[in-house]
């Protein structure tokens, strides 16, 4: 039986790290002080209830369904953790307890690299909110020169992939690097590095995998319809990511979110082969195939020859709900670790945290320095 004052680190299953003991701390009393019923599960139940309701048909989306999406739109992704009504811990203590569970990857850097000694690190990086800051205009989410250089150095020392909801053409235009793998459209469009200087000397690999090619005509059709349907909503922007669509509402007045959600839902009723999910201030429209960033991570590891290797340490850094699929895969594999980029406590399957792209930059820079030092000592 576990003593209620001893917390097993969430990193243990992946890195085999030690337990963290907290004596006489009200923060870690049993049962947990957080809701064990995630918000996204609650929203799924609302969706299911609406689907089963006889009062909902093609011309009636259901107030509960739209309300649930608008409520979800107010939350960033992944959902923030909230204390239960029984919890009297202050917000500051709440954040402290979260940091204990998901410590800074910078503070735990030595633990991370010690776990990677003698193994191959493979880097996976989200783009928006991870390599670039979240900005009002998605078309202006530029990467800094400094970040570009550090990502290039990472790619020269480790197999490296950018896994993003953006189209490959869009994110490549931002990053401007040929040494890395690109997995666009949430991993539904994967290309290998084209530079002879890529890690391992591989080049001109071109397209590796496109599991949703048959959906492209439908995606293009829905894109045109949504552009027409949302043009009257100031600030709304529909982005065609080739194999999926993004409806950005970061610049939309919150009073208009309900109208925007209604328009998107009304269009998708006629396209059951597409599904609606939510990212960070964006509604994502994707094919209903079983493919996400986690599947893309597994595919790339297999392509690199690490599918069943015990000597690989995949590292995935991301800030969004869609990155949780990759974090979950790492936990299921029992290898590597996820790093959530967030300044606030959120539900996550990651093992560590960083606050913003500047900390991501610092972590990547230190990782390159560690690798060069390790090679020099060999």
Task: Characterise this structure.
Among the domains are: 93-210 and 308-375, Rossmann fold (3-Layer(aba) Sandwich), CATH 3.40.50.1000; 214-287, Trehalose-6-phosphate phosphatase related protein, domain 2 (Alpha-Beta Plaits, 2-Layer Sandwich), CATH 3.30.70. Helix content is 37%, strand content 16%. The chain is built from 12 helices and 14 strands. The strands form 3 sheets. The chain has an 8-stranded mixed β-sheet with strand order 7-6-5-4-3-12-13-14, with helices on both faces. The chain has a 4-stranded antiparallel β-sheet with strand order 8-9-11-10, covered by helices on one side. Strands 1-2 form a two-stranded antiparallel ribbon. α6 runs parallel beside α12 and α10 (293-303) crosses α11 (324-333). The longest helix has 21 residues, at 357-377. It catalyses: alpha,alpha-trehalose 6-phosphate + H2O = alpha,alpha-trehalose + phosphate. InterPro entries: HAD-like_sf, HAD-SF_hydro_IIB, HAD_sf, OTSB-like, Trehalose_PPase. This is Trehalose 6-phosphate phosphatase. Keywords: Hydrolase, Stress response.
Please write the CATH class name of the domain at 93-210 and 308-375. Answer: Alpha Beta
Helix content: 25-40%
Count of helices?
12
Radius of gyration: 21 Å
- SSE order: EHEHHHHEHEHEEEHEEHEEHEHEEH
Structural class: alpha/beta
Fraction in beta strands: 15-25%
- Strand order across the biggest sheet? 7-6-5-4-3-12-13-14
CATH fold call of the domain at 93-210 and 308-375: Rossmann fold
What's the overall geometry? globular
Largest sheet data: 8 strands, mixed
CATH architecture name of the domain at 93-210 and 308-375:
3-Layer(aba) Sandwich
| CATH homologous superfamily descriptor of the domain at 93-210 and 308-375 | HAD superfamily/HAD-like
Overall residue-averaged pLDDT value: 81
Distance between the termini: 44 Å
SS elements, strand count: 14
Poorly predicted regions: 1-60, 76-80
